[in-house]
Amino acid sequence: MQKQRLDSNSGEISGQLNVTNNTTYLVAGRRSAFTPYRPSTILTNLQRGNTQTIAPIEPLFRSVHQLAAQGELFLCHLDEKLANQIDENGLTPILWASSYGQINSIETLLKQGADLKFKGPNGENALMLAASNGHLHMMKILIANGLEINDTDEEGNSALLYAVYGNHKECVKELLLNCADITQENSHLCTAYSIAVHNQYKAIQELLDEHISKLLQS
Quick one: residue 201, left, alpha or beta (phi over 0 = left, psi -120 to 50 = alpha)? Predict the structure, then answer.
């Protein structure tokens, strides 16, 4: 994974730096914005059919995490231990399924007692990952099952901030309808509104303006 640096004088992206964690940042004083978690290249390639095996005649083994991300996870693959198994990236099947919007996988995992509130190594939860990737229906399921709307990762980013950064208007709308805190700041002093303005997401900015107006009138 790479991290880009924003030149504080010109405002241009000036270079790249390899990093190993799951979260990257563009930082320019107080006007910084985070880049939320992205699934690993290995799983992305597998999902697209790009992964090559050394011995094609052997059946490809897929972990419960891969099956969850591909929407091919069924009760026959699981027991309670596997449903909560943590992979080498510190992620559970719930987090993979949420990131890829695989509703069938989530339903299967919940039936097997998977921990919906588990957080990844950077404090990211299922709702944040679903919001980051614009999976509206997944978000509705997670909210209905009790995930806290205003919970944050280690950098103070809520699901609302993830949704705004990804420019997912319908996800932002859903979170606001469920009382997401529009004033919440992350550790870089970014709010949902400042991220929308900084990235010139006009539709989301208008949505946030409407929400603020309603709050002031109530």
Answer: beta
Taking residues 71-98, report their average pLDDT.
Answer: 85
Domains of the chain listed by start with CATH number: 2-48+61-217 (1.25.40.20)
d(CA 125, CA 137): 16
Q: What is the DSSP string of the chain?
A: -EEEEE-TTT-SEEEEEE--SS-EEE--TT--EEE-----HHHHHHHHT----S-TTSPPP--HHHHHHHT---GGG--HHHHT---TTS--HHHHHHHHT-HHHHHHHHHTT--TT---TTS--HHHHHHHTT-HHHHHHHHHTT--TT-B-TTS-BHHHHHHHTT-HHHHHHHHHTT--TT---TTS--HHHHHHHTT-HHHHHHHHHHHHHHHH-
Q: What is the pTM of this model?
A: 0.74
CA dist., res. 62 & res. 79, Å (int): 16
pLDDT value for 151: 97
